[in-house]
Design brief:
This protein is mainly β and 420 residues long. It has four domains: 10-57, no CATH class; 63-150, Immunoglobulin-like (Sandwich), CATH 2.60.40; 154-254, Immunoglobulin-like, CATH 2.60.40; 257-408, Beta Barrel (L,D-transpeptidase catalytic domain-like), CATH 2.40.440.10. Helix content is 10%, strand content 36%. It has helices at 10-22, 50-57, 185-190, 374-381, 411-416; strands at residues 63-67, 82-86, 89-97, 106-108, 114-117, 126-134, 140-148, 155-156, 158-161, 167-168, 174-178, 192-196, 202-206, 211-216, 225-231, 236-238, 241-243, 246-253, 257-262, 267-272, 275-281, 294-297, 300-308, 324-333, 340-344, 360-363, 387-391. The strands form seven sheets. Strands 21-20-19-27-22 form a five-stranded mixed beta sheet, with no helix packed on it. A hairpin with a 2-residue loop joins strand 16 and strand 17 (241-243). The protein is elongated and about 105 Å long. Keywords: Acyltransferase, Cell membrane, Cell shape, Cell wall biogenesis/degradation, Lipoprotein, Membrane, Palmitate, Peptidoglycan synthesis, Signal, Transferase. The active site is at residues 342, 359. Residues 33-67 are annotated as: Disordered. One of its GO terms (molecular function) is peptidoglycan L,D-transpeptidase activity. Residues 1-30 form the signal peptide.
Length: 420
């Protein structure tokens, strides 16, 4: 009967250690000759385990764990990736995108027991992690994992305004627009926290399944700071579609400025912190194209911008825009549908009539470089988030979701639109 013995060569011991670390369940058997004098062979022709024990004694005592496991998919891009070690210390961890080899930055903890990426990963990307650790005797072990992050079709994000670190007017809401329809509105809204140093109650309101705005009952208090935390990572927005954001942002509320346009008297009164700064002659929308009534919030500012009537439905018989002005000065957006308050250099009956296609016009000059004009002054004195109220126009009140204009919803109805 042929005897089978365990050989303890350095080469095979290395294989056994590597297999134990990477495969776990793989068992290596070594075939020898028919040398019956092997002192490690038992009476039944099998090794007594002493060589195997010697090999195992040389294996590292460090055990590396990688999350997610090899082969995982739909992995989150924020907090789902971590490397940890027991019985040793990490020496190196490398993480790369499989497709192009781009390295992912990360940091080993001070005690060398763990590693995490420094920032968010990309969606729909295959990554590979290779980690090395050693035990107290300096014996190394390795582990690796290849996985794929969540696809864009299985995830959602929210685009928010205002910008992080900005200073805004008292009318600026927190507005979040999601890139996928949200069915589990309660879960998503519950994962978003909005707090103000002004001590005001802040409530979220869903305009539709993609837009969620937050505001207090009355305008923000001047000088307050608003903090927003979006803990959406892993939150299921709809079946099979999870959030991938885990971020915070904040903004500061500046002085209070509310300007009231009276379309009947053709005047605008600018009030800051309760005091009238200036009364300015204006020209609002003509009878056939009146300006919306209601509370509107400045959402964008442009020193100059192009305005083409075709983009907002004002066309002639040939389908061309009734107007096309390439350099409208000092323009500030009040609605998504194209309502602006802006400078006008081509002529209008400021203070005596309404002649526009729905915007509020102020006297200005071509080139937007004369600081003495009403248009230039108002542009300079205005912040994104300032409120412009239009009254006595022949049109109806603007829809609250046409721009950042949720202030046109009374508080009871606003709270009724909350999912929590």
């Amino acid at each position: 009967m042929e005897k089978r013995v365990m050989t303890a060569t350095k080469h095979r011991r290395g294989l056994a250690v590597t297999a134990a670390l990477l495969g776990g369940a793989l068992v290596l058997t070594a075939c020898g000759g028919d040398d019956g004098d092997d002192k490690n062979a038992g009476k039944d022709g099998k090794g007594d385990g002493k060589s195997e024990a010697a090999a195992n004694a040389r294996a590292s005592g460090a055990e590396i764990g990688i999350h997610p496991k090899n082969g995982s998919d739909n992995v989150g891009i924020n907090k789902d990736v971590k490397v940890a070690v027991k019985g040793g210390k990490l020496t190196t961890v490398t993480m790369t995108a499989v497709k192009d080899g781009a390295a992912v930055e990360g940091e080993i903890s001070d005690d060398k027991s763990s590693w995490v990426p420094s920032g968010a990963l990309q969606r729909a990307t295959e990554y590979r992690i290779e980690a090395v650790a050693e035990d107290s005797d300096g014996r190394e072990t390795t582990n690796n994992s290849t996985f794929t992050t969540v696809s864009q079709s299985n995830s959602f994000i929210g685009y928010f305004t205002p910008e992080d670190g900005s200073t805004v007017g008292v009318g600026m809401p927190v507005s979040i627009n999601f890139d996928k329809p949200i069915k589990n509105k309660k879960a998503v809204q519950s994962a978003i926290e909005v707090n103000s140093t002004g001590g005001q109650e802040i409530v979220g309101h869903w305009f539709n399944d993609k837009r969620l705005d937050f505001r207090p009952e009355k305008y923000w208090k001047s000088g307050s700071k608003v903090d927003v935390k979006m803990a959406l990572d892993g939150v299921e927005g709809s079946e099979g579609v999870k959030g991938v954001q885990d971020r915070s942002f904040s903004f500061t509320v500046g002085r209070s400025q509310v300007s009231t346009v009276d379309a009947k008297t053709y005047q605008m009164t600018v009030v800051r912190d309760g005091k009238t700064l200036r009364t300015i002659p204006i020209s609002a929308g003509a009878a056939e194209s009146p300006t919306w009534n209601g509370q509107m919030v400045i959402s964008e500012k442009f020193k100059e911008t192009r305005m083409n009537g075709a983009t907002v439905g004002f066309t002639d018989d040939d389908g061309k825009g009734e107007y096309d002005i390439p350099d409208v000065p000092h323009a500030m957006r009040l609605s998504t549908s194209g309502t602006f308050i802006h400078g006008n250099y081509w002529g209008a009956p400021f203070g005596s009539g309404n002649a526009s296609h729905g915007c509020v016009g102020l006297a200005d000059v071509k080139g937007a470089n004369d600081a003495s004009t009403d248009g230039a002054w108002f542009f300079k004195e205005s912040l994104i988030g300032d409120v412009v109220i239009v009254k006595n126009s022949q049109d109806k009140v603007i829809a609250p979701d046409n721009g950042l204009n949720g202030w046109n919803v009374d508080w009871a109805a606003w709270k009724a639109g909350s999912a929590v």
